[in-house]
Amino acid sequence: MKTFTRFLSALLIALLLVPTASVALAETAEPTELIFYFLGEEMEDDPVVLGAVNEKLIEKLNCYMTVEYIPFGEVNTTYPLLFASQTRMDAVFSASFTGYASLANRDAYMELTDEMLQTYAPLTWEDTPETVWDQARINGKIYAVPQLYIENIQGVLGIRGDLREKYGLPEVTDIESLENYMAAVAENEDELVPLLFGSMWTYLYDILMFTPNEWASDANFRQICMAYDLTAEAPTPFCYLYTDEYRQALDTVYRWNQNGWISRDSLSNTHTNRENMSNGRIAVMMDNSGTVNTTGQDMLKMGDGAYLEMIDLSGDAQLLNYAATGGMLSVPTQSQHPELVLQVVDYLRNDKEMNYLVERGIEGEDAQWYFAGELNEDGTVNENIIAYGERNSLYGGNWICWSAFRNWDYQILPAAENCISGYRDIWADMNSRSGNNIMQAFTFDSTNYQNELAAIQSVYDEYGKPLNLGFVDPATGLDEYIAMMEAAGLTTVMDAYLQQAADYLAAQGVSAEAAAE
């Protein structure tokens, strides 16, 4: 702790001297404030890490970042209001799940032209593959800097291994053994429930429907329920509401709900799966492997004997790589310093020292991280395998680290000591089966369908969520839900979506018919 305290004291002193230092470095201007908005909530060591980042930014670019956060549970409410209210901001986190395509079509984001990117973010422009830029294009234009990150996105299970042992149950290996475990929890535990969903409830259908069938969904327009076969070279999208597979998944979830395995708080809960598990509210979490591993580390630090086991039920299914649009940075149209924002992104993304700082935090055993000492094949230290310092959990748990600052050249893998049992093997196996699909770069042009999409979104939120979480009997509820979706305009939007997808594939030189031959 002494080293970290000395660092903090020195940093605060340095920051007090910044105005004087900046005059010497840039006699013509005081440092420029850039306001960044990210998802999440401020963590205890965020000010310390951001202070270190800003010290370098002032030296390099004569600017500094002020970071504001939007709780993840408010992504569908507070986030769009930032643009409607013309909130003062220079950069904002964007992603497929924040409505990136819709907001871009409504001119909420500034177009990032090739010339702008080449001039103000030349390293990013040069090092980012065209296929990645294509994922960020809306009607041929770029409205965000996408992340560079290698990982699959499919969900895995995290279960309380201490409870499984307490009940004398075998390891969970399939849905049947998972159900046996949840039944034991529901029968014997009063202080927690098997499942509680919140903002990330879609992992439930990832595990029950999408992954087993090797499907992928369109996260840009989740409300219209479009999917495609990720194994196909040129897949034809379809609306999964009309499939037998969806009905079967609904039946399973309804049974779980009727058994008391899904908390009713799922309809109002806004916490993440990690928060629900770390806070001792659930016995099963469904999320990506990295988040389950991090949550497992959170629990081990509590020292109360609770621990997580990670289970992958995907078998040998082909998986989809994490989309570049899963975490980006956009420049809102009200930004006062768009060019400077791009320079900051270029610096933090590509300079190794700065990327280590913003993505990992302060180096040191008494800080956030340190090199684990694992070696490359040539005998040199692998700098991307890190061990967690004493204060690791106090930085990095929000989306400042999961945005366009990500660079796969510096992507970390936790040291073996910081991995729950099985994580590394599962991570490697799932990534070995992961690839991209041409449809990841397709974006539906919703310009002429805003009224229909708004109406469909209302039905999806009000009626779809209770159905999807098992609070409505699908025997009658599914047909009623489909009828309401169609009345809201689903068929009109779906027809347009399918036509645009066909046109997109044809423009890429492929078609579903040709690929099938």
Report on the structure:
The chain is an alpha/beta fold and 517 residues long. It has two domains: 2-150 and 324-360, 3-Layer(aba) Sandwich (D-Maltodextrin-Binding Protein, domain 2); 156-320 and 439-516, Periplasmic binding protein-like II (D-Maltodextrin-Binding Protein, domain 2, 3-Layer(aba) Sandwich). Helices cover 44% and strands 12% of the residues. It has 21 helices and 18 strands. It has helices spanning 2-16, 18-25, 46-61, 78-84, 100-105, 114-120, 122-127, 130-135, 161-166, 175-188, 203-213, 244-258, 273-278, 289-302, 338-350, 352-360, 423-432, 450-468, 474-488, 490-507, 512-516, and strands spanning 32-39, 63-70, 91-94, 137-138, 141-142, 145-146, 156-160, 215-217, 226-229, 238-239, 284-287, 308-311, 319-320, 328-330, 369-371, 385-388, 413-414, 434-435. The strands form six sheets. It has a five-stranded mixed sheet. It has a three-stranded antiparallel sheet with strand order 11-7-12, with helices on both faces. Strands 8-9-10 form a three-stranded antiparallel sheet. Helix 1 (2-16) packs across helix 3, helix 15 (338-350) crosses helix 16 and helix 18 packs antiparallel against helix 19. The longest helix has 19 residues, at 450-468. It is globular and about 65 Å long. It starts with a helix and ends with a helix. Mean pLDDT is 91; it is low at 1-26.
